Amino acid sequence: MATTSSKTPSTTDTAVVAASPAAPNSFDSTMQRLPLSVDQLRHCSEALECFKARKCNSPQTIRQEFQTLQANRTRASDMINRCTVALDSLNYSKNRYTDVLPFDDNRVILKQCTDYRSSARGYINASFVTTSESVSRFIATQGPLSHTSEDFWEMIIQYHCPVIVMLTRLVDNYRTVKCVDYFQAEDGPRDFGNICISTKWIQTADNSLILRCLEVKYKESEEPPLSVLHVQYPEWPDHGVPKNTLAVREIFKRIAGVPPSLGPIVVHCSAGIGRTGTYCAIHDTIQRILIGDMTALDLVNTITTFRSQRIGMVQTLDQYLFCYDAIIDELESLILDSNSCGLNP
Prior knowledge:
Its main location: cytoplasm. The chain is of the alpha+beta class. The protein has helices spanning 38-57, 59-71, 76-82, 149-158, 246-255, 274-290, 299-309, 317-340, and strands at residues 4-7, 15-16, 27-28, 107-109, 123-129, 138-141, 163-166, 190-192, 195-204, 210-218, 226-232, 265-268. The strands form 2 sheets. Strands 1, 4, 5, 6, 7, 8, 9, 10, 11 and 12 form a 10-stranded mixed β-sheet that branches. A hairpin with a 5-residue loop joins strand 9 (195-204) and strand 10. The longest helix has 24 residues, at 317-340.
């Protein structure tokens, strides 16, 4: 991998350490791959055959799947009763988009937020998203606003989030702000209210990925800082898809081995539903296949589950088709890697 660094990481910097006392000491953020077990290889082969058959033999079926998802999507009128905290007058300005709001029943609640008014109820525009306790748990969220950056870092600390996946630029090609610079990685130590952020290292990896190791802590706390791997993919266009699946699969390779016990993986773009939902669906599907959960072959059901937890996850047909492409490409890669090590399904 070609790598350039504004801060050269040491040997110990390649491991990102979580501050949760119940968590393992570290996880490896490099791209080391272990051979699949015989069972995993069989699961991947069966899944690959299924996904390729749909894509190659009945592409219209895939489009019909997305049409089914769209026909059953949550309507804006249904959000009024399900998003009451987000719609509260104290919280309304904390939403980047007024039609992308977290549901009351699975929203992320800040235990101690900067807005101490009880009626604010620890609000942040973020949702817990998951299909199984056996695979990665996600927090899907919007790109922070200038006045919600401290809330964002409160969430990272409180829920011991080991990884942030950022799937957007700060400003798009039309000069529209998609996300505030909530990390300011090149500016040295910096404060967001009661929280201090510092950068241990920055790497520019292949496929346009930018990797940052950030340390986060409360200013007055005696606790060691929480180390967070920040992975940014700025080349994924809003409402669109990348030209190929390489960068998205590299993100998966780097973070798929993070134990769920470390805390949820935070994924955001601008609204936190299109690119965010697409990545979560890819990551979740491959992980479930690897543990033998073949219900993961039902991508409609996976995205339906995600949409029941955050409105609009996977926004466009192109994003849905990209899920198929990335899953197929990664399954092929996993099988090829294992076969090169002498395993056969």
